Structures are given as C-alpha cells and as structure tokens.
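Data card: per-record layout.
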Amino acid sequence: MLLLSNADVAEVLDMETTMAALEEAYLGVADGGATCRPRIDVNIPTSDPERVYRWGTMEGGARDGYFAIRMKSDVLHWETAADGTVTREKFCGRPGLFLGLILLTSTETGLPLALIQDGVLQHMRVGGDGGLGVRYMARTDAEVVGMLGSGGMAKTHVASFLTARPGIRRLKVYSPTRAHREAFGARAADTHGIEVEVCDRPEAIYEGAAIVAALTDATAPVLDGDRLEPGTHVVNIGGGGVPDRRTLERVDVYLRMGDAPAPEGLPPFEQEYLSWRVGAPPARRPKEKAHGNMLPGRRVSLKEIRDGSHPGRTSDDQITWSERGNLQGAQFFSVAGRAYEAARDKGLGREIPDDWLLQTIRN
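The structure for this 363-residue chain is written out next.
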C-alpha cells in the first residue's frame, strides 16, 4: 500500500484529469456501474461547551475498479466577525492542523492500495465539480467571473472554470480581508495570465459577470440573487449549502449532477448528509442545512444532458445553477484512483507492507 502526501497528489493531479474522473463517476452511478454513500457526520460534545468533536465519512466505489472512504476528524467551533457573519472553524490537535484521509482499496482483490492525505484532492474535487457545472450550463461566450471568497476553494475553482471555458479573460474577486483578496488576485493573475479586479465591496463582483461563484466558509448564504444579471451561471460552496432565497427564485435551470442510489430495501435518500449527535449543540452554533433535491420543476441531471434527453440551458438569458448533489463518495473513489495510478507510475509515496495490515483471524 502507498502512503501519499498532499505534495504527492499536487505533483500528479491536474484539473482536466479531476474533471474527467468526476464525470465518469457521476455517469457510472447513474448507469448502475458505480455506487456511493452521502456524507455521514457523528457529533460528540467536548469539555468546552462551545466546541464539538465531529467524525465524518463518505464512501463509494465502481465495478472492476476502486473503492474509497474519506474520513475526517475535527474539533468544530464557531466564530462571529465584526459584520455579524458566522463562520465554522475547525482543527485537529491544535488550530492550523487538520486530519483528513482517504483509504483506497481494490474492488477486485480487496487489498488496500493507498492511504492519501485529502487536503489537495478535497479542493480539487470540489473545484472540478464547479467546473463541470460551468462546462455544461454556463454561456459559451462567458468571459467574466465574479467570485466571493479567496481561499483554497477559490483557487481550484478558477482553474476549473478556465478549463471549462478557456475564453474567460477577467476575474472579479471580493473577500472580507483586503490582504487576502489582494494576494489571491495577484496569484491568479500570475498563474493564469488573466485580468483580475480586486473589489472593495461584494456588490461589485456581479457587474458584467457571466459566472458568479460564492466560495466561502460562511454558515449563511452570501449571494445576493437580486444582483445576478440575465444569463449568469451560479456556483455556491458554503453558505449553508444553498444559495440565498432570491437566487433560487430566479434560477431557470438547476443542474444536479446526480443522486446516490437508495439503500437496499429503503427509499431514496436525497439529502447531502446525515448527522448524529450526542447531547445538545452549542448555544451559538447556527442551524446547518442538509439540503436535498431542489427545484423539481427546473431540475436536470448530468446524465440527461449527456444522453440528449434534456438540453440544459436553452437561452443566453437564463440564470442557471449547478451543484454536486449527494455524490461525495463517488468523487473520492474516482479522483483518488487517478491520483494513485499517476503517483504509482512516477514512483511517489511511501510503501507500507501489506503484512502490516492483513491478518489471519477472520473478522
């Protein structure tokens, strides 16, 4: 088994590969050749009444391929900024450190293949998902992106948007901390060779934008649907999982990449995640949403667009929105499998003997 670090993953995983792996997995789930489980969180109180321990997992696999489970161990707490925005913070051990691992196994032999740090792959799979939404729903002449957020998710979304729409020439970005947004803007301009406008107010990012992306760790929606211009495509990460009410009202076509299969003998489970808790939540903790399959009259799946049974966007004036659905488990086995293959071929990672993990006692 290979032990792969974030540095190993960053060396071998590019955005085009990520997006191709995601699309293959989504279509595999829709066609019955793959399966996955939505995220499950277990929340347990700590000795600090304002903090909660959370163990989170998601998993999935494909016929004649890979299975993966992604595991996270976090201590959560909530911070309120001067403007009243509440963000969810987390750490493992101490602030600034995090624990997220992906265990990749073979569905042919059952053998463990890799244990992978999830940081880089996590940002790539979320960014790649947004890029697929742009590829299939944004206007073909999209040239300007308006972005709220300047962290790691913003970085991978810029890469995926440009992969999906090479004609993008300008990025408008806002985040609350001036130093952060200016540093992000400078890096994006240097990396991608595009024009970047660093905005001093969030309202400015909507003006002239064909793609608007909210990529924050805020616990409440940060988009302003009244400011969306006709023809805008919307991507939303954070903010309670869904855009604001006005954006949802204005969406003409909603792309949900797909749905995790129903558990055997049980009805379909459409929500993004399940959560269990020991005790009551902290008093300051805002309510978290586990949104499900939304806007039924305006919804289309990736499979429907790919097989031609639904056209997706039909007008340059339509406002569209795309989101993953509850397919997190499919994201991890597909992208981790590609990263593992590339790292193995390049001789990256550290070998862990199978004998350290296999046993003679039947479990």
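Known properties of this structure: The mean pLDDT is 95. The chain has eight helices and 17 strands.

See the next section for split statistics.
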